[in-house]
Each structure stands twice: as structure tokens, then as C-alpha cells.
Amino acid sequence: MAYRMANMFVVIHVIGSYQIYAMPVFDTLEGWLVRTWNFTRSTKLRFCTRTCLLFLTMFEAITFPFFGGLGFFGGFAFAPTTYFVSNP
Length: 88
Known about the structure:
Residues 3-84 form the Amino acid transporter transmembrane domain. This protein is an all-alpha fold.
């Protein structure tokens, strides 16, 4: 019972801290879109940017454990290109 309760409190803490630390990122992204692409500040823009950023961070968190395998395959593919591609 204590193990489940501890896990529940960790999840609650992570959800709350993500919201606090992500607010400046959300605000910076929205400000950049308003200044650069002349969007108007609206609820629709806020919903779309926050949803896209949430999915981006979720995708990064899901794929992060597999970076070791990707590094192996990247190094495996990079080695032959150093021999075949000449420097100008």
C-alpha cells in the first residue's frame, strides 16, 4: 500500500512541477509566434502550441531510453562515410 501511495505522490509531484517549469517555455514560444509570424494571442493559439510542445516532450521522453541503440547504429553508419566521402 505504501509503495502505491509513494508512486501516486511522485506522479502528482511531476505533473505539478512540469506545469510550473514549462510555463516560461510556453510563454516564450507563444511570444515568438506572435512576433515572428504575426499570430494573434488567442485561446486557439495557446491550445495548439501547448499541445504540440506537450507531445514533443512526451515523444522525447518515450524515445530517450533507446538513444543507446540509436548511437550504435549511427556510429555503425558514420564510420563508412568517413572513408568514402572525401574532404574538399
